[in-house]
Amino acid sequence: PPSPLQPPGLPLAPCRSFSNNKIQVELDESSGVATMKFKSPPVNSLSLEFLTEFSISLEKLENNRACRGVIITSALPKIFSSGLDITEMCGKSMEHYAEFWRAVQELWLRLYGSSMVTVAAVNGSSPAGGCLVALSCDYRIMAENPKFSIGLNESQLGIVAPFWFKDTFVNVVGHRIAERSLQLGSLHPAPEAHRLGLVDELVPEEKLMEKAAAVMAQWLALPDHARQLTKAMMRKAVLDRLVAHREEDIKNFITFISKESIQKSLRMYMEMLKKKK
Amino acid sequence: PPSPLQPPGLPLAPCRSFSNNKIQVELDESSGVATMKFKSPPVNSLSLEFLTEFSISLEKLENNRACRGVIITSALPKIFSSGLDITEMCGKSMEHYAEFWRAVQELWLRLYGSSMVTVAAVNGSSPAGGCLVALSCDYRIMAENPKFSIGLNESQLGIVAPFWFKDTFVNVVGHRIAERSLQLGSLHPAPEAHRLGLVDELVPEEKLMEKAAAVMAQWLALPDHARQLTKAMMRKAVLDRLVAHREEDIKNFITFISKESIQKSLRMYMEMLKKKK
Amino acid sequence: PPSPLQPPGLPLAPCRSFSNNKIQVELDESSGVATMKFKSPPVNSLSLEFLTEFSISLEKLENNRACRGVIITSALPKIFSSGLDITEMCGKSMEHYAEFWRAVQELWLRLYGSSMVTVAAVNGSSPAGGCLVALSCDYRIMAENPKFSIGLNESQLGIVAPFWFKDTFVNVVGHRIAERSLQLGSLHPAPEAHRLGLVDELVPEEKLMEKAAAVMAQWLALPDHARQLTKAMMRKAVLDRLVAHREEDIKNFITFISKESIQKSLRMYMEMLKKKK
Question: In which pathway does it act (chains A, B, C) (predicted)?
Answer without folding.
Answer: Lipid metabolism; fatty acid beta-oxidation
